[in-house]
Amino acid sequence: MALMECHFFSEALGMSTSMNVILPQQTRSQIGLEGKSSTDKHPVLFLLHGLSDDHTIWLRRTSIERYVASLGLAVVMPNVNRSYYQDMAYGLAYWTFISEELPALARSFFPLAEEREKTFAAGLSMGGYGAMRLGLSHPEQFGAAASLSGALDAVRVARERLSPAESSAIFGPLDEVAGSSRDLLHLLQGVEASEGPKPKLYQCCGTEDFLYQDNQRFREAAQGTGLDYTYEEHPGIHNWDYWDFTIQQVLKWLPLERKE
């Protein structure tokens, strides 16, 4: 695998920002690891961080580089600070950045596939919300989306999980979140009713996680649709032991072409 830290300017944010990128590399003599690649453009996973982290965290807390080596899968890990993947009411346009600008820029920098069937999103906690929002808002671009211990209830996050000042800066008026494009339950209904492509969805959460009940609400709504939806739960709390385990389950679940 090749690992790069990429610093670049974002027009959407109006400033420079960073992402870490893992690219497949075909290797045979590397001790302890056999990398796989192809001459085609690489399928890509946009892997999103949580509220208190940044673009470096997946590499620092898991073995994500080792886990994807045999899959021929590129991984793009961007930085969105504490934005909750929103175009903030009083702040920067992180949703525009993550949903529109970043995929286009990443593909201009690296040989990444453009087909939706080879484009995926996943994330933990706040990033689980971001990944699900990408899949549900842009099913024409993302073939699959996965949430690990996701903070999936934006209404509850805005009202209870953040301080009033931060919530106001990110979401603006609280009574405008429910039923909007920021509300995943609303997006689920829209995708189900649409005649366009529909993403595969994966959700997992630890049974002792403080977000467990929020995840159950999303689970009930998702299971009431006709979407290709997978739910798993395991003993666990909101920590990296759980996410290091479950990101491996996500990689097994992704609809990749797996060549022996």
From TrEMBL:
<dbReference type="InterPro" id="IPR000801">
    <property type="entry name" value="Esterase-like"/>
</dbReference>
<keyword id="KW-0378">Hydrolase</keyword>
<dbReference type="GO" id="GO:0016787">
    <property type="term" value="F:hydrolase activity"/>
</dbReference>
<protein>
    <submittedName>
        <fullName>Alpha/beta hydrolase family protein</fullName>
    </submittedName>
</protein>
<dbReference type="InterPro" id="IPR029058">
    <property type="entry name" value="AB_hydrolase_fold"/>
</dbReference>
<dbReference type="InterPro" id="IPR050583">
    <property type="entry name" value="Mycobacterial_A85_antigen"/>
</dbReference>
<dbReference type="Pfam" id="PF00756">
    <property type="entry name" value="Esterase"/>
</dbReference>
